[in-house]
Amino acid sequence: MTDIRAAVLPLLRRAISYELGMWRSLYRWTFRRPVAPGANAEPFRYAATVTPLFLAFIGVSAIELPIVHVLLPWETVRFVADLSGVYGLVWMLGMLASMRVHPHVASDAGLRIRHGASVDFTVPWEEIAMIRSRNRSVAKRRAVQFERTGSDLVMQVVILNQTNIDVTLRRPTVVGWPKGGSEPVTELRLYVDDPAAFVARTRERLAAPATDTGAR
């Protein structure tokens, strides 16, 4: 029983945290613009490719709701179907909102990498060796994936089976995210809507310490 509780409780906490994060994102998206925290912070969004897909699902779900309501003859079943349908519709809106209000952020503290409300960690600029744009296709649909190349471990933060930015680290680094474990990674791959602007601005950030201190 103790082993079951130890395995289930972390999953339950993550599920509750994800749900609360989704509702907070929906609130922020509805009532105010996203905020990029940190000194001299600059957001870089990544939701442009998934937005039409979400909107299509949301539109189909909205059309289905009254149709199902009319077709079901039983009052209780109709109520349950309406309730689950409305929740599913709001849940998809919350998923989209979480991506819209949690962009990647470049600030004085470093490069903050996000995926909705579930992935959020910052890599200091001094830990980054190189940033470049490179389009890659990923076979699986999971938001966060790992790929081992020899002794190196690559972390991929994926949008629609794609990444288009490679971030090479100076040394193996443990990134802080809820399910990340303790194994260090040597490279990060992520997706942004405007990779050219992202690379240009982050390379300026990487060059700034060399200008200020004469080191690097």
Structure description:
The protein has 216 residues and is of the alpha+beta class. It is 45% helix and 27% strand. It has a domain at 108-213. It is built from four helices and nine strands, in the order H-E-H-H-E-E-E-E-E-E-E-E-H. It has a five-stranded mixed beta sheet with strand order 5-8-9-7-6. Helix 2 runs antiparallel to helix 3.
List keywords for this structure.
alpha+beta, elongated, 5-stranded mixed β-sheet, 4-stranded antiparallel β-sheet, single chain, 216 residues, 45% helix
Question: Could you give the topology of this structure?
Answer:
Blueprint: H1 2-31, E1 42-44, H2 51-71, H3 75-101, E2 104-107, E3 110-115, E4 119-123, E5 128-137, E6 144-149, E7 152-157, E8 162-173, E9 185-190, H4 195-213
Helix pairs in contact: 1-3, 2-3
Radius of gyration: 20 Å
- Major β-sheet strand ordering: 5-8-9-7-6
Secondary-structure element order, N to C: HEHHEEEEEEEEH
SS-based structural class?
Answer: alpha+beta
Mean pLDDT: 83
Specify the biggest β-sheet: 5 strands, mixed
Count of runs of 4 or more consecutive helical residues: 4
Overall geometric form:
elongated
Summed up, what is this model?
This protein has 216 residues and is of the alpha+beta class.
